[in-house]
Automatic annotation (TrEMBL):
Pfam families in the cross-refs: CP_ATPgrasp_2 (PF14403)
Protein name: Circularly permuted type 2 ATP-grasp protein
Record-linked Gene3D superfamilies: 3.30.1490.270, 3.40.50.11290
Residue intervals of the Circularly permuted ATP-grasp type domain: 70-446
Organism: Thioclava kandeliae
Length: 470
């Protein structure tokens, strides 16, 4: 039987980060816990924190499950994670700058050219163009899992538009509102500086043609998008405009925003739409979400787009396997955080191993996200495994496989009381004039007993993430 590291209990004793939470838990009767849980759900509903699930019928807007039991890290643990995340963000940006220009890493034989240049996320439209400060991925979401006291692994990188930061901020807000005494008793690093740090990051990468304080706007697909709440939430926190494609137009090499007082120039666009929809004159001609001529303004230095078009080639799940080599190649350092061992089904030997061991492996689509398009072998039926086997055999290049890690657990409130549930962590690393991240992140929890799938679209929930101050 696989032993899972319990982040609160070591044997029979409570680990130091959780020392003050045991009494809090034990002193909370079931009635109070249920009342507080209902209060949290009411707050989430009143604020409007929902996400969308399409294709299942009924109202697509769902309330994300919130667990009141916080996840806790010591300052020492966080320092290691912070250093590893910043190192990874630097290497990923160096890789993007390289492959869109001189491609030294490809010439050196460190990564196959096919994996880069035949990747559907690679955008030829920006070949030879370097954005402001040479930064392509300005908000990097690094998904981490833990398997032991000192063992953290990177599960995947999100270099385009990682979502979920609004949950990180609202989780904290709701916990502080419901349990003020708990925060008085524990010295917890704040996360409420994220919006200011994001605004600072976006402003620092304004284009050269911007000769004053940059005007920043968040470009959203609109209120039907599953993350629309987050788009409006961040715009409000930063004090910037939330715009849709038709609100913008291009003229004279610049991007302009339609306002009641006439056109206003936009210098930095934090885009929350995919590359394919950004500009119908450059990408998908049927896009109604983007801005005609946007890419011409971008390439001529009239506007900055964050994250840069084409950044997705760095968070492909097959490219992920080469990130440790990127760190060595560009930074001359050894990786602080390790990858999960990964088999690429595009390789003959790897494919043979994967097909022979499907019941023990986790298999993912190279471009998949949200917990879709994946097989968790140990939790799947023979029929599900055979269906996936045929998919892999038909298109092996579309899949990678990883061992089923013994993910750590944290205490979670369930109907019966408190029980361990598996978790992951997504910190948000901001890359601009400097690299920074707030102490914490989004902890996602698999609420179903024994489940390893933490995605909200697959029944997962969220909880507050604490980093204890020294």
């Amino acid at each position: 039987m696989i032993q899972h590291f319990n982040e609160m209990y070591d044997g029979g004793s409570v680990r130091e980060p959780y020392a003050r939470l045991e009494g809090w838990t034990n002193s909370m009767p079931a009635e109070l816990r249920q009342m507080k849980q209902a209060e949290a759900e009411q707050l989430f509903r009143r604020i409007g924190i929902t996400f969308a699930v399409y294709g299942e019928g009924g109202d697509p807007d769902r309330l994300i499950p919130f667990d009141m039991f916080p996840r806790v890290f010591t300052q020492k643990e966080w320092r290691k994670l912070e250093a590893g995340i910043k190192q990874r963000a630097r290497a990923l940006n160096a890789f993007l700058k390289d492959v869109y220009n001189k491609a030294e890493i490809v010439k050196a034989g460190k990564i196959p050219a096919k994996l880069v240049y035949q990747n559907e996320a690679f955008e030829r439209a920006v070949m030879g163009f370097t954005p402001a400060m040479g930064i392509y991925s300005h908000i990097v979401g690094i998904d981490l899992v833990r398997t032991g006291p000192e063992d953290f692994y990177v599960l995947e990188d999100n270099c385009r538009t990682p979502s979920g930061v609004s949950y990180m901020l609202e989780n904290r807000e709701i916990m502080m509102r419901m349990f003020p005494k708990l925060f008085h008793e524990n010295r917890i690093e704040p996360v409420d500086g994220y919006a200011e740090a994001l605004r600072r990051t976006l402003a620092s990468v304004a284009p050269a043609k911007c000769d004053k304080d940059p005007t920043i706007a968040i470009l959203t697909p609109g209120h039907y998008n599953s993350a629309y709440y987050e788009h409006s939430f961040l715009a409000d926190l930063m004090g910037v405009e939330l715009v849709e494609g038709p609100d913008l137009f291009c003229e004279g090499g610049f991007v302009w925003m339609r306002t009641t007082e006439g056109p206003k120039k936009v210098d930095v666009i934090y885009r929350r739409i995919d590359d394919a929809f950004l500009d119908p004159l450059c990408f998908r001609p049927d896009s109604m979400l983007g801005v005609p001529g946007l890419m011409d303004c971008y390439r001529s230095g009239g506007v900055s787009i964050c994250s840069a078009p084409g950044a997705g080639v760095a968070d492909d799940k097959a490219v992920y396997t080469f990130v440790p080599e990127m760190i060595r190649f560009y930074l001359g350092e050894e990786p602080i955080l390790q990858n999960v061992p990964t088999w690429q089904c595009a390789k003959t030997d790897d494919l043979k191993y994967v097909l022979s061991n499907l019941p023990e492996l986790v298999v993912k689509e190279v471009h998949g996200s949200g917990g879709y398009g994946m097989l968790v072998g140990p939790k799947s039926t023979k029929e599900q495994i055979e269906i996936f086997r045929r998919k892999i055999e038909e298109d092996p290049e579309n899949y990678i496989a990883q061992p089923t890690l013994a993910l750590s657990t944290t205490p979670t409130f369930v109907n019966e009381g408190v029980a361990p549930r598996h978790v992951d962590l997504r910190p948000y690393c901001l890359v601009g004039e400097k690299i920074e991240l707030v102490p914490g992140g989004l902890t996602r929890v698999a609420l179903t007993e024994g489940s390893l799938v933490v995605n909200s679209s697959q029944g997962g929930g969220v909880k507050d993430t604490w980093v204890l101050a020294e």
